[in-house]
Every structure is written in C-alpha cells, then in structure tokens.
Specification:
There is one protein chain. With about 900 residues, this protein is of the alpha+beta class. About 45% of the residues lie in helices and about 25% in strands. Strands 18, 19, 20, 21, 22, 23 and 24 form a 7-stranded mixed β-sheet that branches. A 5-stranded antiparallel β-sheet has the order 4-3-7-6-5, with helices on both faces. Strand 1 and strand 2 (about 45-50) form a beta hairpin. Helix 17 packs across helix 21 and helix 28 runs antiparallel to helix 31. The N and C termini lie far apart (about 175 Å).
C-alpha cells in the first residue's frame, strides 16, 4: 500500500472516531446525562453548560433580523423578540399574552387561523400575508414560517416573521414597469356571494387602454363600468358574474368609450376561484384593446360579404381537388348549396374528370391558369365559364390550395355568336347588294319597255298581248326578287306610314284561312284595337308575316296548329341585353307558332342566311327568312326564334311602337307632260339610256345621252343653256357619278341633278354631293315623271295633265278622297277581284277592272288608277276588303259592266 493511501485511511478513521464522540455527546446532552460540554477551540478549550446555551440562544433570537414568536395553538403570544415588536410597533410587554390574530390584516385573518389549524409537528409551513401595526394604517407584508414544537409536553407554534416589504416593492415596481409598457390592464377583483363586484387593485396601461390614469381608477373604480356602452354594459356584467359563479373562465368583448371620446373595442380575459377564507370568488382579469383586430375582422366580413354578393362563382379547392370553400355566388351559378359540396371533388361535381385533373396539374406547376370551360349546373344546364385559377401558399411558401373564380359567359358567347352571324350576314348582304345592282340595271329597261309598249302599240293581237303580259309579269317578279335581296342586305327602303299592325295581321290571316289546308287549325289572338301603332311599309310587313305563315304551313305536312298572336311589349335594359339587335323601348310583338317538325339546334344559326333552305329542290328559294330578317331589321326591330324537334317552332317579331293615327284615305295626282325640256341622261348601260330616252320623249321631253361622267361633262358644257335636268347614274366607269356631279356643280352651281342607283346606300353619297333628288332603280315611268315634276320649277311644268296608264290627253281629271263607302256600291265579285289583283301586284288586271267602273264614277276610277300607278297595293286591299266593307259575295251575280277591249 502506498504512503499516500495509508495517510488518507488514517485521516478517515480519525474523523469517524470524532463523529462518534460527537454523536454520543449530543445524545448525552439530550438525555440529561451531562451538564456541560468542553469544546476545543482555537483559543483553548471552552465549557458550555445548558444554562449558558439558553442564554446564547436568547441572544441570537433577540439580535436576529426577523421577528420571532412562540404562539400557543390558540394564537396567544407566549414569547416574541424585539424585531417583531418593531414590526408591530407595539412594546414587548403589550405583545406577550395578546392574540397575534389582532395584528393580522382582516383579509388574511381566516387564512392565518386556518394556518394554525393545518400546522403539524415537525413540519414547517410558509405563508405570505399582511400585518397591521398597532399604530398606523400601513400594512406590512411579511412571510410567516410556522413550525409546531413540544415544550414540557405542551405543543406550541414557533413562528419566524420576515419583513418582505422591500422585495414586494421591487416586485411591484418591476411588474408595474412590465404592465405599463404592455398594452394591457390587470384587475384584481372579488365577487361576493350577493353578486357584488369589488375591485382590489388596478395595474398596467390604464391610460392607454381606458384613457384614464391609474390614480383616477383607484379613486373611482366604477369609472370603467360607466364608460362601457349602455348596449353592452348589462350583458357584459351579467355574463361575467354568471360564468364566475358557475366556475368558468372566459373572454368578454365589449365597446368602450375611451377617455379621448373615441370608441374602442376591449376584451376581458378573466379567471376566478372560490376563496374559502374570504367566503367569496377571487379573480384576476386582463383587459386588452382589440379595436384593430375588430376593424380587421370588419374588413374581412365586408370582403366576405362582397364575395357573397359577387356574381362570380368563387370557391377554394384543395390540391387533392376537394372543395374547401363555396361562396354564395357559386351557389347562385351552379345551384348547389355549401353544405352539399364541401368535401366533394370538383371532378365528380361537374362530371369532368380528365379536364379538371389536367387543370389542377397546370395550376400547380405554373401558379395560375385562365381559360374557358364548359360545365353543367345542378339542374343539368350547360354553361360556359371564364375560369381563373390561382395557387394559394401558406407562410412557409408551401402550396396548400387553389382559388377559383368562375364567371358565367354563356350569354356573352351567345351574343358573340350572334355578332359573328350578323357579320357573316353583313358580308353576304354586301355581295347580294352588288348582285342586285346588276339585276336592277337589267330590270330597269325591261320594266320600262313593258310599260311603254302598250302606249306605243294601240292595237295588239291576242298572242302579242299575252307576250307583253308575260314580259310585264316576269319583270315584276324580277323586281320583287331584287327587293327581297336588297331588303336582306338593307340596301333599300320601303315607304313608311303609320300602321295599325292588327289590321294587317287579320288580312294576312284571312288569306291563310282561305288557302291553307283544312288539316291546319289556325287560331288568333290579335287585339287589333289595343295594339300600339307602328311606322312601316305595309307591303313589306305583309310579306314578313306571309313568309312566316307559309314556313309554318310547310313544317306541318300532316296538319297541325298554327297560332298567331300579337301584344304590346315594353322592353327594359335587361331585356335588351339578351338580344344583340334589341334596344330598350316599347314594341309590338307578333308571335307565329306552329306544331310542326321543328328545327334542329345545329341549324338555328343558319336559317336566316340567304339561299339557305331545308326544303326540297324547287320548293324553296332560301330567301324567305333572310327577307323577313332584313325587313324587320330595316324597321328597327328584331326576330327571335325558339324551336324544339318534334314539338314545333315559334317566331317572335318585335317592331318598335310609335305614336300616331292611321289614315286610309289618299289623294294621288296625275303627272304632267313635259314642255319640251331637255334632259341629259347619263348611264353606262345602253339599255337603260334607251328606255329612259323613249319614256321621256313619249311624254314630251327632249333627251340627250352620255355613257359616262367624262362624256356627260363634255355634253353639258356644249348644251348648258338648254339642259334643264341631268339624270345621272351613280356607278359608272372612267368618271363615277359623284365626281361627275361635283364637276357639273362647279360648271353650274344651280344645275338640277337626279341621282339614280340600284343601291339605296348611294343616297348618302348623293346627299354628300349636295344632290337633293335620288331615284332608286329599277324605277317606273311614273316615278321618273313624278321626280321631274318635283325638280322642275312651276313655270316649266304647267303642261297638260295626262291620265296614268293611258295615252289619252286630258287637261284635268276629276278625283276624290277614296273611302270604303265609295266602293261599297260595286259588285262583291269585282271587289274580290280587285283585292286579289292588288295582293298579287297585277297592275294589268287592276287597269282592266278599273275600266269596268261606270263613267259616272270617273273620279273614283282616276283615283284608283293613281293608286295602281304608284303601286299602293296595300291601300287598294284595305279599300276592297269584303270583310271590312260588310259585303257578301253572290256567286250568281252577273257582271254589270263588260270588260273593255
């Protein structure tokens, strides 16, 4: 064994021996076997006796910085030191024998008495409370350390009292600093059993939270409650008391009138527990200002409200396609309520698995996506939406969901189709307009020749007469065909008058009832007297509704039901948005509905195209509905169509209503003959120049010809003093009509020009060239002569009047204002023939029928001739309608007048 280890071992043995001796000595002292102990000290040995030990102990107790006392189990002070006397500010002689309880703060008395009951032998209990000195009201915070000991078989309590005033002041200062720097107020309170709320203390930023200083609140604790808004005050206090009495903690939010008189939102977080010692609930309440949070919540609520009132469908879907949020706009668009869709996959909801999966992948990769999607609603309705998808990230930039905003563009797409369709029709219209211009140049000489030949040939054999009638009829049919093309392209205008549409409809319905198969039942709902008046061309509108009824008839080869109804229909701005051509206002709406085979949906966008037809070859021109659309559009209206295969089709025609009165009487004057005035005819079509020349010369005008603008200028310069009027075509080679007219005006600013064209659109060009008179091709002789009458000054047109449609000269023919009463005396069969001839625009037959009128009624005959000459077929039909005259036809009635040869 090493020397160091041997030395350490010896020292350990010596220490153990001294410990054993000390233990034995202590045991002897405890048992009373020894009276003194000799202790070796640095200055030598010292003897400590038991009596000496008590003295030393007493000196230590008296000199210690803490108060000390021996108290009986009942709280009676048996002994106390000087320090306790100082703390209680009471002499020792007065303390000994008094109750320590009397120096305990009344809030802590129960706690102190309970402490004395709880203390047990050998165990020490610590408790903080406040002492009340004998003099003065200032409480002294102390810490009591109580231990029960036995003295001569008597249990007493040894109490050490430590003054913790300084530490409490430091803690309070530190806490006050923390609270004052924090935006919060801490309130200590007690809730008594009778519901009374007592506030023990306020700490924290009272100035910032309430607008009042801590001193002000300590002086008047009710100041806070008084400034809670009256609407919130009772509810706030009741909720606080109820929850505390039920043992619940909680949070109360209320509005508070701050000291600066601004309205604030405060939140009170409180907790309380029953204090058995004080027999009440003791709690703490932390009050914070949540105004900013409330304002943020309000903004969020407003934004949420905006989301809900937005017309767009807004929803959020997870990356796994499950729906997480569903706005009110989405409910309105798709029809599903929020509870029905939350948690569902959009792929399942919209039945678009592949498409939507692909879009989620694109959005996840690119961060956003935008495009159009075809979807279905809850009711199975197909819609088109403009979809915008945006990837949503969390605070850690992780993708968590996709925000979807869908706008319903179904109506916009329909309007877009209508717009493209209108553009296509406009292009076709431009093409048709050009074709019709060429047709007009061809038809103008044919129509003129068919009217001139009967005047040139006084005696014709029957074959020649038939050929002329064939020529005239063909020319008229050609004119009507061109009108249809021009109406489709909106390149021609009709003669608009104020009309009562109900009468026109009843007339067309009457024709249909007489001519349509009996297997078709025709029903009407036309309140003629109640309908608003419109402005329009009766002949054109007659054609519109006849075309629609004929189409309805052809759609019901096996019979069915045809319904014609009319009503006054005001349209507002919302109604106008549905149709591209509609405008807000008052309309007369006419509905023509059949129970026929219907129109396939894929053909609905083509039915108004020119030359489009589903009928067999030879049974349809394809111009019927395009003409309908052109006429209605030209009248400022629009057409809507609804159709379902196997159930039928419904056309609705909307015509704008106006204010005015309908007149059925008219006065037409015969045109004068010329006085030998020289007319310059300018046209690049030789046939038109020739027929115009022949026509004018036949009515006592002189003519001079030019084939284009350059030649016209040369001819006019040579014959300026003689030429009275220039009849000039607008579209010519070399120098067009507009340029030629302007050049003529430079030569002679007062030159009289009649511009002619097969396109009504050229009327504006003529007006821009300061030409006031415009004649649409193909024109009749009567229209040309009437135009010359209007443009020539009075002193140049005092020639003898001529009877229309005859070669006889007459200075003045009697005329009257025609009415139905004037024709009521004519035979019913003659009236029916007049009506039919006017309906089919057969001028030749009308002339023959008019010549049957007795010579005693020459004024009526002349007025009817004037109507025939100016093609006022609608007025002739009004005057000769048997149903309106109250005349019944007698099939056995003989003709009173023979037809003139």
């Amino acid at each position: 064994m090493s020397p160091e280890v041997e030395t350490l071992h010896r020292e350990l043995v010596e220490v153990q021996e001294r410990l054993n001796v000390a233990e034995e000595t202590l045991q002897a002292i405890r048992s009373g076997e020894v009276d003194a102990v000799v202790v070796s000290m640095q200055g030598g040995e010292r003897v400590f006796t038991l009596q000496g030990a008590d003295y030393v102990y007493q000196c230590l107790v008296e000199q210690m910085g803490e108060g000390a006392a021996t108290v009986s189990s009942e709280g009676l002070i048996l002994y106390c030191n000087k320090r306790l006397s100082e703390l209680l500010n009471c002499p020792l002689k007065n303390l000994i024998g008094s109750q320590l309880e009397t120096f305990i703060d009344h809030h802590n008395k129960k706690s102190f008495l309970l402490l004395l009951q709880q203390v047990q032998p050998g165990k020490s209990i610590n408790r903080e409370l406040s002492l009340l000195p004998a003099t003065g009201n200032k409480e002294v915070p102390v810490k009591l350390s109580v231990k029960q000991v036995q003295i001569d078989e008597i249990l007493v309590n040894s109490i050490i009292v430590t003054d913790i005033t300084e530490s409490k002041i430091k803690e309070a200062a530190k806490l006050s600093h923390i609270l004052n720097s924090a935006i919060a107020v801490i309130k200590n309170f007690r809730l008594l059993t009778d519901g009374t709320l007592e506030i023990d203390s306020w700490t924290g930023g009272t100035q910032q939270i309430f607008g009042y200083s801590l001193e002000a609140l300590q002086a008047d604790s009710a100041l806070v409650i008084a400034n809670i808004l009256p609407e919130d005050r009772e509810k706030t206090l009741a909720s606080l008391i109820e929850n505390i009495q039920a043992g619940r903690s909680g949070v109360i939010e209320y509005r508070f009138l701050h000291g600066d008189r601004t309205l604030r939102w405060l939140a009170s977080n409180y907790v309380a527990e029953w204090d058995q010692e004080q027999d009440c609930w003791v709690g703490i309440e932390i009050i914070t200002d949540i105004t900013q949070r409330k304002e943020t919540e309000q903004k969020i609520a407003e934004q949420a409200a905006l989301i809900d009132i937005a017309s767009d469908a807004i929803f959020v879907q997870g990356l796994d396609d499950h729906i997480l949020f569903w706005s009110k706009g989405a409910e309105r668009l798709y029809g599903w309520a929020e509870a029905e869709v939350i948690g569902q996959k959009t792929q399942t909801l919209f039945n678009q698995r592949c498409k939507l999966t692909e879009l989620i992948q694109i959005t996840t990769e690119q961060g956003s996506w935008q495009g159009e999607i075809d979807q279905i609603t809850k009711t199975g309705k197909n819609i088109i939406v403009e979809s915008r998808k945006t990837l949503i990230h969390n605070l850690f930039c992780q993708s968590i969901a996709i925000l979807v905003v869908n706008s319903d563009i179904t109506e916009n797409k329909q309007l877009e189709k209508q717009f493209y369709h209108a553009q296509r029709l406009e292009s076709l219209g431009t093409l048709a307009s050009g074709i019709s211009h060429d047709f007009n140049n061809i038809l103008t000489p044919i129509l003129g020749a068919s009217q001139l030949l009967p005047l040139k040939i006084t005696k014709m054999n029957e074959p020649t007469e038939r050929l002329l009638k064939l020529l005239s009829g063909s020319a008229k049919r050609g004119v009507e065909l061109v009108k249809q093309i021009l109406l489709f392209s909106r390149a021609t205008d009709g003669e608009s008058v104020i009309l009562q549409l109900g009468y026109l409809l009843l007339e067309v319905i009457g024709i249909a009832q007489h001519t349509f198969p009996k297997s078709i039942t025709i029903s009407t709902q036309v309140p003629a007297m109640e309908l608003w008046t419109i402005s329009g061309d009766a002949t054109q509108l007659h054609q519109v509704f006849m075309n629609l009824m004929i189409n309805a008839r052809d759609a019901m080869p096996s019979g069915g039901s045809l319904t014609i109804s009319a009503e006054n229909r005001p349209l507002d701005e919302d109604d106008a948005l549905i149709n591209l051509e509609a405008k807000a206002g008052c309309y007369v709406a006419v509905t023509v509905a059949d129970t026929g085979i219907g129109i396939p949906p894929e053909l609905l966008n083509q039915i108004f195209d020119p030359f489009f037809t589903t009928k067999e070859v030879g049974k349809g021109t394809g111009l019927g509905l395009s003409t309908v659309r052109g006429i209605v559009k030209n009248h400022g209206g629009f057409v809507k169509v609804y159709s379902e295969l196997g159930k039928g089709t419904e056309f609705q025609v909307f015509l704008p209503a106006i204010e005015g009165e309908v007149s059925l009487t008219t006065v037409e004057q015969a045109m004068p003959r010329g006085k030998g005035e020289l007319i310059l005819i300018v046209d690049d079509e030789a046939s038109i120049r020739e027929i115009a020349q022949t026509s004018l010369e036949n009515y006592n005008y002189r003519t001079i010809l030019a084939s284009d603008g350059l030649e016209a200028l040369a001819v006019y310069r040579e014959n300026q003093q003689e030429i009275s009027v220039v009849l000039m075509d607008m579209m010519m080679p070399n120098l067009d009509g507009v340029s030629a007219m302007r050049a003529l005006q430079e030569i002679n600013p007062r030159v009289k020009i009649i511009a002619t064209s097969g396109l009504v659109a050229n009327r504006k060009l003529a007006l821009d060239a300061n030409v006031k008179t415009f004649l649409v091709k193909p024109y009749t002789i009567a229209q040309l002569l009437q135009m010359l009458t209007e443009i020539l000054p009075p002193d140049e047109n005092k020639a003898n009047r001529i009877p229309p449609l005859t070669s006889q000269e007459s200075s003045s023919l009697p005329r009257v204002k025609l009415s139905r009463d004037d024709l009521a005396m004519m035979p019913a069969e003659w009236l029916q023939q007049m009506y039919d001839a006017a309906y089919y625009c057969d001028g030749d037959l009308l002339v023959q029928l008019i010549e049957q009128i007795p010579s005693s009624q020459v004024a009526i005959a002349n007025a009817l001739k004037d109507l025939t000459l100016s093609f006022k077929m609608d007025i002739i039909m009004e005057l000769t309608d048997l149903s309106k005259l109250g005349v019944t036809k007698d099939p056995q009635e003989e003709k009173d007048i023979e037809v003139a040869e």
